[in-house]
Specification:
It is a single chain. This protein has 3 domains: 13-307, no CATH class; 340-447, no CATH class; 498-658, Rossmann fold, CATH 3.40.50. It has 661 residues and is α/β, with parallel strands linked by helices. Helix 6 (116-131) crosses helix 8 (172-187) and helix 23 runs antiparallel to helix 24. The strands form 2 sheets. Strands 4, 5, 6, 7, 8, 9 and 10 form a 7-stranded mixed beta sheet that branches.
């Protein structure tokens, strides 16, 4: 962009993983190297204590658990070593500040609060793991609204598990493996060690300023994703840390009767993510993601297989686990849909259908993604091959996939990587040379006779001329979006005459008022001034709060939050043909219920010490379009109740000037 800024973008599944680090560090930590690293950090006494206790180290030929240190003893020893070097209050400061993080994430809707069975299975797995070793830590599990394959732990026992991670699990041993590994990081205070390194580097920085910046403003997934880089800078784990967590986790797995080798398959999944990133970006992950000190996940997988001769058979998947995974997959795909990450969604769903072709809900969400792509990018939808679009791959492999004749082993491995499928693909639910159009047509034919009434509404509007018989049947059967269906059918001509201003993304550093998220901005700033300014340009103005559940449902709020990312950020002024009424039946229902003729989305956020505004206008008309403008960079030192009106005034003037008719 001209001014060199971008609104924070959410990390996606292609962006890699926190737990495994990156692929730059070749080879794994030899026992000699690990011992030297432990000696440098903990001192000779710590190495002797570990050896005497029989704690498992990578590449050790035998494992002894009889005299191993308890988790509490490990924690005490680690903190003792750190506190010999640093002020004793640092750990209390760090833990107290970090303890605010769960409440912040829950308050801002970044975690799932209604997935009790999912949380219960994770908590029961943790109980199984801690029962045998006396770990007294009280773990708190947060299931994150994040589609990426990721999980990580923080000081004090906070364990964050992304929905995308739960969706991709193959067995309960994989879940136990990752949880045990993360519990190893907690027991060894690796997060606090990272904090100490940061505090040493910043000298006068306080715990409040460091962690405060972590849990600062936001209220959206996009914002939180930008903060994951700061999380990583505090909790980045060295090769030594990873070796300790691996060793701790393996011991815990054995003590709790989980199978290590099936559990270690999770590292092969991380390896596929690395390879897919390279296909997507045309380069190795290197230092782009999460530092450069971690071992490659495939080497860790091979190490665990070769260094342990225990049970190699995974537990039979319980009914609870299979139910959790099915629900997690639907949640993950819904997240990707709301992020407009349609290709990743389609590829992810494709991979799931290889093993479980009967999962009709996966097909329904894939159809929604293809439908939206057809609407937003018709040329791409019609002509592009799904499995070769935008990937950096050899021409021979690309030609083989596009021709779909004879597939070599190398090409087959490439397809496995793209679909993130760890096993050899015997049969695919779609032709490997399918375009988005071909996949759409196949799903259309299958879903139009399917059992889901709501999916049939999408099918009914999936052609230029909506299927009148299907729409009427949907209405007669009492479908959820009655007003939208009647609108599509032409049975009603709703009154749409209001102009609605929807502040969508707000992130402001309000001077002495501190950093403020969406809700704080609504309570602090004078929005009546904003509404008055809005009325100068639009008739019958209405101001809506995205968190007003009396007027906007949670589903509608998620849809509205994602609207500003529909247009590219490559220019400051842009337009695109776009029928908001056909984009999603839930949005159509929202527009009809609130009598919205024009929806104006307003973003105000800070980036690189400047405040930026963005306005997008969605109009219900014969020739509907998105009209988007981005305000120039503005630096204003005075923050007061009228500040938001000042910024909106700048943005709306710029918008009116750009689209003056």
């Amino acid at each position: 962009m001209k001014n060199g800024w971008r609104r924070p973008r959410k990390l996606t599944q292609e962006s890699g993983s926190k737990m495994n680090g990156n692929s730059n560090g070749k080879g794994y930590v030899q026992m000699k190297g690990l011992a030297l690293a432990c000696l440098l950090f903990f001192g000779e006494q710590a190495i002797q204590a570990q050896n005497e206790a029989g704690i498992y180290l990578p590449f050790a030929s035998t494992v002894s658990f009889s005299n191993s240190l308890s988790p509490d003893e490990i924690k005490k020893a680690v903190l003792h070593q750190i506190r010999n070097e640093e002020p004793k209050r640092w750990h209390e400061d760090f833990a107290n500040e970090l303890s605010q993080l769960p409440a912040y994430m829950i308050r801002n809707g970044l975690t799932y609060q209604n997935r009790n069975e999912c949380t219960r299975l994770i908590e029961n797995t943790i109980k199984e793991l801690t029962r045998s070793n006396g770990d007294s830590t009280i773990y708190q599990v947060l299931v994150m609204k994040d589609a990426s394959f990721n999980a990580f732990a923080m000081e004090g026992g906070i364990i964050m598990v992304n929905m995308g991670f739960l969706a991709a699990l193959q067995n309960e041993d994989e879940l136990a493996m990752v949880l045990a590994h993360e519990m190893g990081h907690v027991s060894h205070h690796h997060g606090y060690q990272g904090y100490v390194r940061m505090r040493q580097a910043q000298n006068k920085a306080s715990a409040a300023s460091l962690i405060g910046s972590l849990i600062g403003p936001g209220g959206s997934l996009i914002y939180l994703a930008s903060k994951f880089f700061l999380i990583n800078s505090i909790f980045e784990h060295s090769r030594q840390n990873e070796a300790e967590a691996d060793a701790y986790g393996q011991n815990l797995m054995v003590q709790s009767n989980y199978a290590i080798q099936p559990g270690a398959e999770v590292f092969r999944r991380f390896h596929l993510l690395h390879e897919k990133y390279e296909l997507t970006e045309g380069k190795e992950i290197g230092s782009v993601l999460f530092g450069s000190t971690h071992p490659e996940p495939l080497e860790r997988y091979e190490l665990m297989k070769s260094s342990f001769d225990g049970d190699s058979i995974a537990k039979s998947a319980s009914t609870a686990f299979l139910k959790l995974r099915t629900e997690a997959r639907i949640d993950q795909l819904e997240l990707l849909l709301n992020e407009h990450n349609y290709r990743v969604l389609i590829e992810t769903g494709w991979g799931y259908l290889i093993d479980r072709p009967e999962e009709i809900e996966v097909k329904e969400i894939m159809f929604k993604a293809a439908y939206r792509l057809k609407m937003l990018e018709p040329d791409r939808f019609k002509n592009n091959y799904i499995l070769t679009e935008s990937y950096f791959m050899d021409k021979a492999i690309r030609d083989e996939i596009n021709a779909s004749d004879t597939i070599s082993d190398e090409t087959r491995k490439t397809i496995q990587t793209i679909l993130l499928h760890p096993k050899r693909i015997i049969e695919s639910p779609f032709a490997i040379n399918a375009t988005f159009q071909v996949l759409y047509d196949q799903l259309y034919d299958e879903l139009k006779t399917g059992p889901n009434r709501e999916a049939k509404l999408w099918v009914a509007i999936g052609t230029p001329n909506p299927d009148r018989a299907m729409l009427q049947a949907y209405i007669d059967e009492g479908g959820k979006y009655q007003q939208a269906a009647a609108y599509y059918l032409g049975q009603s001509q709703p009154t749409l005459n209001r102009s609605v201003l929807l502040p969508n993304f707000l992130e402001i550093n309000a001077g002495s008022a501190g950093k403020m998220d969406y809700r704080s901005c609504f309570s602090f700033y004078n929005w009546s001034e904003v509404t008055t300014l809005f009325a100068k340009y639009y008739s019958q103005p209405v101001l809506l709060n995205r968190y007003d559940r009396g007027k906007i449902s949670m589903e509608e709020s998620s849809l509205l939050e994602g609207l500003p990312s529909l247009l590219s950020y490559d220019s400051e002024v842009g337009t695109m043909s776009f029928d908001i009424m056909r984009f999603d039946p839930a949005l159509a229902e929202f527009m009809i219920r609130n009598q919205v003729k024009t929806l104006v989305s307003f973003d105000c956020f800070e980036s690189y010490d400047y405040t930026h505004t963005q306005i997008q206008e969605f109009d219900v008309s014969f020739n509907p379009k998105i009209k988007r403008t981005v305000g120039g960079r503005v630096s204003i030192d005075t923050y007061n109740e009228g500040y938001m009106a000042t910024m909106f005034n700048r943005g709306i003037k710029n918008h009116a000037k750009a689209f003056k008719e």
